[in-house]
Design goal:
Distance between the termini: 6 Å
CATH class of the largest domain: Mainly Alpha
Number of domains: 2
Shape: globular
Strand order of the largest sheet: 1-2
CATH superfamily of the largest domain: MetI-like
Helix content: 55-70%
Radius of gyration: 24 Å
Number of helices: 13
Order of helices and strands: HHHEEHHHHHHHHHH
CATH architecture of the largest domain: Orthogonal Bundle
Length: 333
């Protein structure tokens, strides 16, 4: 297992390099630059823009800019060697000058904890959304399978189909209109995200699609397991239905659900751009959207690398969870 883990970790290197290169090419192909603004009165003059580009190394050839970001390069202004991503340096922000990308993403305000950083907020929101999706989706799928072709099954399928069909931003608008505008249960604009009640809307909107997919996957997996010979044998032995369902059916039906568990968490954390922006949530996704609009190259690259690493680690973790759920599965050395 250790050999397998080391081999998979080495494979992360080309994956992250490829993601970084593709992001770098697309980013520099987009019109505009980090010194442009929408307000003409605040535009940086040509001399200042040239000086800033020289300071940050944006006047160098593209290949050298990429190598400098990934590996490192000597700063032409200070003469000091600055290591790149391989040393954990995600670069300086071009818009929030004086701050590094890792400070923006992982740094918490003074007197606050790590979990109140942008990364901490996004991870907490993703974990809460995934927990809600699993706690509702798995039981809903099990009940639907056990009550196949009944009203309960049809209602569960309706909820699951709606969750998959309705885009998250449309659901977010409905939640804002109903819970914030009509019922006044929560504020539309939130200043203090330390209060748990304000997390209800973004958590529900973000996790609803995953909950629906989990319910459908659990239902189909349970229906497949119910027809297996070992289930009929367990019932023929006179075991209680509760024991048959939990000990023989549920554990085997859980394997496909576990397959999506890691990627789902990574997807919820990395796919919350729209939700965080709509709810003004102080997470990493909102900062990423703002960086794209501002052409903050280092911020875009650094956040993309963090997201790619999260997805890769999530996929790797699923392989190891398999071993503990199903003893028949062994990782190849």
């Amino acid at each position: 297992m250790l050999t397998y883990l080391i081999r998979r970790l080495f494979w992360l290197v080309p994956v992250l390099l490829t993601v970084s290169l593709v992001t770098f090419i697309i980013m520099h192909s987009a019109p505009g630059g980090p010194w442009d603004t929408s307000d003409e009165r605040r535009q940086v003059d040509a001399a200042t823009a040239k000086s800033l580009s020289a300071y940050y190394g944006l006047d160098k050839p593209m290949w050298r800019q990429f190598m400098a970001y990934v590996i490192g390069d000597t700063n032409s202004q200070t003469g000091k060697y600055v290591c790149g991503v391989i040393c954990g340096n995600l670069g300086p922000s071009y818009r929030q000058r004086g701050r590094s990308v890792q400070d923006i993403l992982f740094g918490a305000p003074e007197g606050k904890t790590f979990w109140q950083s942008r990364f901490g907020y996004s991870v907490r929101l993703g974990v809460m959304a995934l927990s809600m999706a699993m706690l509702i989706g798995i039981p809903l799928g099990i009940i639907a399978a056990l009550k196949q072709n009944t009203v309960v099954d049809y209602v569960a399928l309706l909820i699951a189909t709606s969750g998959i069909s309705v885009p998250s931003f449309v659901l977010a608008i409905f939640f804002i209109i109903i819970f914030a505008s009509k019922l006044h249960w929560v504020n539309i604009l939130v200043d203090d995200w330390t209060q748990v009640k304000y997390w209800f809307m973004p958590m529900s909107v973000l996790g609803f699609g995953t909950m629906a997919f989990t319910a459908r996957l659990t239902r189909s997996s349970m229906l497949e397991v119910m027809r297996q010979d070992y289930v009929r044998t367990a019932r023929a032995k006179g075991l209680a239905e509760r024991v048959v369902v939990m000990a023989h059916m549920f554990r085997n039906a859980l394997i496909p659900v576990i397959t999506i568990l890691g990627p789902a968490l990574a997807g919820l954390v990395t796919g919350s751009f729209i939700i965080e922006t709509m709810f003004s949530f102080p997470g990493m996704g909102r900062a990423y959207v703002q960086a794209i609009g501002q052409r903050d190259y280092s911020m875009i690259m650094g956040t993309t690398v963090v997201y790619a690493l999260l997805v890769a680690v999530a996929n790797l973790s699923v392989d190891f969870i398999y071993v503990f759920v199903d003893p028949r599965i062994r990782l190849e050395e």
